[in-house]
């Protein structure tokens, strides 16, 4: 048993859930929204923040608990920020492999120096479904897009994301190191400051 406050994570992405759970486990009794509902709200927002808020509200509604959502994605400079908020749906709903293949194809003629990109994460915490003042924290992680996949850790676009400081892809980082460097880690550090935990 724990006396920790309950918090529901408003995500159906196992990779994200693992990372968020690791970052929050000491401070909250963490539940996944999947324990309460398998329905995923449509991500109709035009920004990461809007989508994070709508996912958080939905999770708070179905669980009756405070909810934290993460809306995140990859913004590639030469593609004017695409795939951006559409990162999960870049190749339709065909999954990470198809998304990565599409991205590599879009960038096939783009030289190394012009392949800069950012991972972006918006976290939204609502105390209840109709919370008029969600807590919002964002994080950005600079990198560039490789010419082929490297590494097997992580999820999503990790095998294509080159982390210059570490001279490896994000999928070659240990989970512990990714959790210190990533867009999600930066947003979470701000959230912890806000919550003074
Ligand atoms: O650290 C990351 N490492 C690799 N890829 C990542 C990362 N962070 C976000 N991404 C990619 C995955 C997905 O293509 C999109 C998130 O889309 P996003 O809608 O926020 O999440 P999702 O639909 O997978 O799960 P859910 O909405 O239930 O939280 O960006
Ligand atoms: Mg999503």
Give the topology.
Elements lengths: L4 E5 L4 H11 L3 E5 L15 H16 L3 E10 L19 H11 L9 E11 L8 E11 L15 E3 L4 E2 L5 H7 L1 H13 L2
Helix pairs in contact: 4-5
Magnesium ion (MG) binds next to loops.
Describe the structure.
With 197 residues, the protein is of the alpha/beta class. The chain contains five helices and seven strands; from the N terminus they run βαβαβαββββαα. It has a seven-stranded mixed beta sheet with strand order 2-1-3-4-5-6-7. Helix 4 crosses helix 5. The two termini are 20 Å apart. The model has no long low-confidence stretch (mean pLDDT 97). Magnesium ion binds at residues 43, 88. It catalyses: ITP + H2O = IMP + diphosphate + H(+); XTP + H2O = XMP + diphosphate + H(+); dITP + H2O = dIMP + diphosphate + H(+). The active site is at 71 (proton acceptor).
């Amino acid at each position: 048993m724990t006396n920790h406050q309950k918090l529901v994570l408003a995500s159906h992405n196992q990779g994200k859930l693992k990372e968020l759970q690791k970052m929050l486990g000491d401070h909250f009794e963490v539940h996944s929204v999947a324990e309460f509902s398998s329905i995923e709200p449509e991500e109709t927002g035009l920004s990461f923040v809007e989508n994070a808020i709508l996912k958080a509200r939905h999770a708070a509604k179905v669980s009756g608990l405070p909810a934290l959502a993460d809306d995140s994605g990859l913004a590639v400079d030469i593609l004017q920020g695409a795939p951006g908020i559409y990162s999960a749906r870049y190749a339709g709903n065909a999954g990470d492999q198809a998304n990565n293949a599409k991205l590599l194809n879009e960038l096939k003629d783009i030289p190394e120096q012009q392949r800069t990109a950012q991972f972006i994460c918006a976290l939204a915490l609502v105390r209840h479904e109709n919370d008029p003042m969600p807590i919002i924290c964002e994080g950005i992680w600079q990198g560039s897009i490789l010419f082929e996949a490297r590494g097997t850790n992580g999820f999503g676009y990790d095998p294509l994301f080159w982390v210059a400081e570490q001279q490896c892809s994000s999928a070659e980082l240990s989970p512990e190191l990714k959790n210190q460097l990533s867009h999600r880690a930066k947003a979470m550090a701000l959230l912890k400051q806000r919550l003074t935990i």
